[in-house]
Amino acid sequence: METKQLTPGKFAVNYGLILGIIMIVITAITYFSGIMEKGEQWPNFILYIIFPVIIIYAINRYKKHNGGLLTLIEAIKVGVAVAVISALISTVFNALLFYVIDPELTDKIMDITREKLYENPKMTEEMIDKTMETIKKFSNPLLGGAIGIGLSALFGLIYSVIGGLVMKKEA
């Protein structure tokens, strides 16, 4: 009887879903607890730790399911797929959050950002205005989502290359 080999992309779906759900949970907690409206950034640091851990773990699990063999290309496929799938899931949730759940959230965050900029004595009114103009250009949740997907793919690639180089074992 022939066993069906699991492709890196299909294998990555479950881990991409898990990471995407974790990202949604963290975003939901920060939103519903009011942390997001305060402009707190520390929840992002949790993601900066979880993101590479899950990617490396997914690559490791793929290697185990593949009889202990792993090429660098397979590691990259698994890691980038996990990163992109999770970013797509997170982008859909963020679009719901910013367009359906709380359409004024972008304006609230912009107001908080402006207040935080005023707290910096080195920032002039002109600097604050220019900074706010730039932020406003990129404050569209869908544009932010597209940028997020691109950055996820990039960091997924970086972590995959590192993990793949450490764990690779070819036949």
UniProtKB/TrEMBL annotation:
Keyword terms, alphabetized: Membrane, Transmembrane, Transmembrane helix
InterPro entries associated with the record: DUF4199 (IPR025250)
Transmembrane region(s): 12-36, 42-59, 80-101, 142-166
Stretches assigned to coiled coil: none
One protein family per Pfam: DUF4199
Signal sequence bounds: none
Protein's UniProt name: DUF4199 domain-containing protein
